[in-house]
Amino acid sequence: MTLPRILVVDDEPQIQRFLKPSLTAAGYEVIEALTGAEALKAVATRAPDLVILDLGLPDMDGKEVIAGLRGWSDIPIVILSARDRESEKIAALDLGADDYVEKPFGIGELTARIRTALRHRGRSEAIPSVIEVDGLTIDPIRRLVTRGDETVHLTPKEYDLLLHLARHAGRVVTHRALLGSVWGPAHGDDLHYLRVFIGQLRQKIERDPTQPRIVRTEPGVGYRMADQE
Length: 229
Description:
The chain folds into two domains: 5-120, Rossmann fold, CATH 3.40.50.2300; 131-225, Orthogonal Bundle (Arc Repressor Mutant, subunit A). It contains eight helices and twelve strands. The chain has helices at residues 13-25, 36-46, 62-70, 86-95, 107-120, 156-167, 175-182, 191-205, and strands spanning 5-9, 29-33, 50-53, 77-81, 99-102, 131-133, 136-139, 144-147, 150-151, 172-174, 215-218, 222-225. Helix 1 (13-25) links the parallel strand 1 and strand 2. The radius of gyration is 18 Å and the shape is globular.
């Protein structure tokens, strides 16, 4: 069986020394690049299944690599970086990165994000006929949301918000992306508006809205819907 191939783009030797054996033990083939230019070439010539990308590269900013790849490739990109500013995360995700893991990190967290990104590779915006997560069932064809035998009554905007998150289950969706998709580009900065609707949605779909398990907050960045069961 062919192992999923992961390209690790990081110029820190200690990160490369840690990641290669750890990811190999987790069942992946690992190839390496130290610069942005090497990364772009490796994606084109060695056909990895996923890229783990540091933003602080010696020849260019990692965000330039994301932009370059997104011009011609939909390969999953997981950012692995010591940059913890919210603006950096948002910029990387808005450019097309699939997820963002901060250094220092645990290998368990990283491999979980890798598995999620690989599951979504090649999927279109279409979603399964029925989605189930934490006891909640979403039926996009009938625009119906249920928990057990009970119908969960959502407003049209609440439903559109839930459906957009479901299309990207397991991945971070930025505030701007959610607002633009559900309310339109003119509302890209209306964060208070979004928080109100997320709060209303959680009251209706979560078992315990004070400890949400379906729609989780990524502080300062956006929201992540739990991957379907």
